Amino acid sequence: MPALVCGKKRLADPNMDFTNLVQLDMATRSKSNSLLTSQAIDDFYSLILPGLPDDVAKYCLALVPRTDFPAMGVVSKRWRSFMQSKEFITVRKLAGMLEEWLYVLTIDGEGKGSHWEVLDCLGQKHRVLPSMPGPVKTGFGVAVLNGKLLVIAGYSMIDGTRFASGDVFQYDSYLNRWSKLANMNVARYDFACAEVNGMVYAVGGYGMDGESLSSVEVYNPDDNKWTLIESLRRPRWGCFACGFEGKLYVMGGRSSFTIGNSKFVDVYNPERHSWCEMKNGCVMVTAHAVLGKKLFCMEWKNQRKLAIFNPDDNTWKMVPVPVTGSSKIGFQFGILDEKLLLFSLEEGPGYHTLLYDPNAALGSEWKTSLIKPSGLCLCSVTIKA
């Protein structure tokens, strides 16, 4: 690719690798230090790459491979601040540099613990995430917001007693580190959560004393704050949530006011700040994922079929899961490259990850994949950043 040109001035090659970028930055600073006053030096160092306009410098940094981002984050506060901003993802998208990675929470050997690991679309493992701060928890929610992984609330067992938490931790996929976000207003576990229009919603679940909850709150990353909004019409727990066309859908789980598992779907409209209800949801859902504009579910009562929900007309269709790859029942889902991955919860001889491509020709939707976590998958999220 030729060098960028701004007016009559030739600028840095956008294909320059990370090492050369750092060397250019340091060499330019060293050469210029003797020529600048104290104030000018402060202004000079505030530039992302001295000698380049910030818009061009931002584009150069956006071209660096994602595997080098943790090293980039220690170069300067200016670089780190840019990498943590929404703008960084926007620039990488414009440059065609977004990379899709799968973050899988998987059980350690002998089932004594768990860890997050990162896989790409070729199944290559890039890293194991640092341990999350705080006590070991379960019943938590996960969401992706602005290229970052959020692990929300949950509960811990201390001396045989459950303690609900309102803690929220964020994993920065660029800097490879965890940080603490604002606490929720209501500690909860076994609740539904999802991102809609750049906000994260937490719905229902169990509270501090094990009571079922109808409360709902929303997280705004711009001010790092959780705000309570209109509650559900009835308490709901063990449910899940997803976003479609700017609305929040909550389904599955149970309610205090229904016998057995609830088929009702609660739908929240953020523009109207109100809930409405549908009656044809999925029940006893063991796995779910949103792919494109459709929701894919697997119900406990029939784990050899995919239940696919189309929000355009609120209809469901069933797709049989072939025995190729795994004849076992019980799967967790992953999404990569616009395809659905089915990770078996029971490994057997000749086990392979199943792959469903909704855009493939009729009869060719199912294949097997080499993408496979190191242990059994507890949950996964896809981060494109």
Automatic annotation (TrEMBL):
SUPFAM superfamilies: F-box domain, Kelch motif. Keywords: Kelch repeat, Repeat. Coiled coil: none annotated. InterPro entries: F-box-like_dom_sf (IPR036047), F-box_dom (IPR001810), Kelch-typ_b-propeller (IPR015915), Kelch_1 (IPR006652). Residues 50-88 form the F-box domain. This is F-box/kelch-repeat protein. It comes from Actinidia chinensis var. chinensis.
